[in-house]
Structures are given as C-alpha cells and as structure tokens.
Amino acid sequence: QVQLVESGGGLVQAGGSLRLSCVASGSIFRIIAMGWYRQAPGQQRDVVAAVNSGGATDYADSVKGRFTISRDNAKNTVYLQMNSLKPEDTAVYYCNARVYTDYTKWDDYWGQGTQVTVSS
Fold first, then answer.
1. pLDDT confidence of residue 23
2. How far apart are CA 35 and CA 109, in angstroms?
3. In the chain, pLDDT over 90 holds for what percent of residues?
4. Alpha-carbon span 82 to 73, nearest angstrom
5. E strand or H helix that includes residue 38
6. What is the DSSP string of 46-105?
7. Are 57 and 49 in contact (CB under 8 A)?
C-alpha cells in the first residue's frame, strides 16, 4: 500500500500565499508522476498541476503564472507553491501519485485532502 499525507492548507487573504506539501510512503517501487487536484463544494475534482519523474510540469490555465509545482524525488515529496491567491482558489486540495509498486503493477493513490480558503 501507498500513503499520501498532505500539509500546508489554511486560511489566507486574497493576494496571499500558501505552500502545500505531500509526502508519499509505503510500497513504492517508482513514482511516475505526482500532482495536485482541487474540488470546490458542488464541483468536480479538477487537476491543478502535475509533474512527472523527469520534472516536466503542466498547469491548469486558471493557475498558470501563480502556482508552481515542484518535486523532490529523493523524498517522494511534491510541493505546490500558491501565490496571488484568489477567492476562487478556495477548495479542498488533493495530492495524487501514480506509483509502480513492482515492475508491472501501477495504480493511482490519493491523499486525504487539505482545505485552502481564500477570503476576499
């Protein structure tokens, strides 16, 4: 099994910054990619940013230029630096990892979620 533990959420005023962290542990053979998703009340869960094992990144249009995803492969950790936060960024943020647990088997794993609230 693989566990993802997120930290760093909270309440911040519009224009402020937060940094989310997610650590993966357990039966990890190789992590293919890690990313962050978010889900606002009544909305579907959408991808925010992702980074693969080679360091290539991708972002949702709504966060480009404001959020930065980074990854520490040695620590199995992914970060999301969120700057210039807006009230519409308010959501529960979930960490995701696509993990090989042996040579042939991979699966997607999720963290428990961390609340980010941006006040206007």
1. 98
2. 11
3. 93
4. 20
5. strand 30-39
6. EEEEEEETT--EEE-GGGTTTEEEEEEGGGTEEEEEE-S--GGG-EEEEEEEEEESSSS-
7. yes
